[in-house]
Amino acid sequence: MVVYFAFLFHIYQPPVQIPQVVKQIVNESYRPIIDALRTHQEAKISLNINGTLTEQLNDFGYNNIIEGIATLASRNQIEFTGSGKFHPILPLIPEPEIERQILLNEETNKMFFGNVYKPVGFFPPEMAISERVISVVRKLGYDWIIMSGIANTLPEFPTTTISQHQNGLKFIFRDDYISIDCAFDKVNTVDTFIERLHYRHTSEDYYVVLAMDGETFGHHVKHAIKDFLIPLFNEAPHRDDIQMCTVSEIIKKFPVGITQNPRDSSWSTMPYDLAHDVPFPLWSDPNNEIHIEQHRFFMYALTLIHLAYKYREGMDDQKKSIYDNARNLLDRGIHSCQQWWASKRPWYSTDMILRGLNEVLMASVNAKRSLPDNIPEIKDAMELIMEDMLKSQNKIILHL
After folding, report:
1. Start-end ranges of CATH 3.20.110.20 in the chain?
2. Class (C level, CATH) for 3-275
3. Cis geometry, peptide bond prior to residue 271 (ω within 30 degrees of 0)
4. Tens of pLDDT along 205-241?
5. At what angle do helices 176-183 and 190-197 cross, to 10 degrees?
6. Are 36 and 229 in contact (CB under 8 A)?
């Protein structure tokens, strides 16, 4: 009997992150993980890196991290996944914006990683999934998508077969229990980890997928690379009862089984959230006034951007440049961190809320500025929308 296991590391920093924090995480986490993989050629992981982090690594002078990841991908030690470039909660944005974020992510990562960036699997930010997300991901050609174990609707948790959607998209469910215990330093030795992998006590082969923030290793849990990851990389190749894989390798090893429609959820969704019909509690809690106004604020901004786009062909070069800047600011502004920091479960930061708010506000102002001068009635309509936006902004600030 063999337990096939795969790590999926998700690495991301919000587009408003300060350079000093990126530097710290590069030195504590990204570089040591790359070094650990480089010196253990039988070790492998699946990796999600959002395009906004790839750009930050380039902008802040960490091209050696990009090159290190690319080299490991060329050696088949890293398997890339797709995602949304600026880490939005995909179920909370309209379908065209879901597709836009995914395509922007592909464009950015292909530019920096080259031909080794060939993802067949998809990591939705915060593992937030819905039927609409599944539809877009399949439409864009992905073979599989990962989600939290709580999303599974089958009577038994899939460990010997791969379930799928009726559209053919394959589903991989994270083992939430082992993943969370690794992330919170409760599973921190090789012996403990292998013991947890064998939880089924069966004679048949099965698989376990662990997914967590890559920053867990070295940054959040300082000793996790030295005391857990490297010893695991040393020992795993010499054991007959476990085998380290990428997620796609697991899918190839196990048969595709029954179809299902997973629950709307994220990797932070708890059973009591589902019981209260709150699938994305850290980003869209109906009892959280800031979340309500953040979403309304963004939808107003998105309306302004789409309205301005209708007149882009009539813009002169300067106004087109203003519009393009507005579109980019809105792409950046929908990152999930501003809602996450407003969740108070237990995290809360007025600074991160306001940074995200500012990106969206600047996008809205520039959308209005980009309009040609010969359509004053559209500018008047935009001003009315912006008046409502400012009401939402005011409510957010008063609730901080």
Report:
1. 3-275
2. alpha beta
3. no
4. 999 999 999 999 999 999 999 999 999 999 999 999 9
5. 170
6. yes
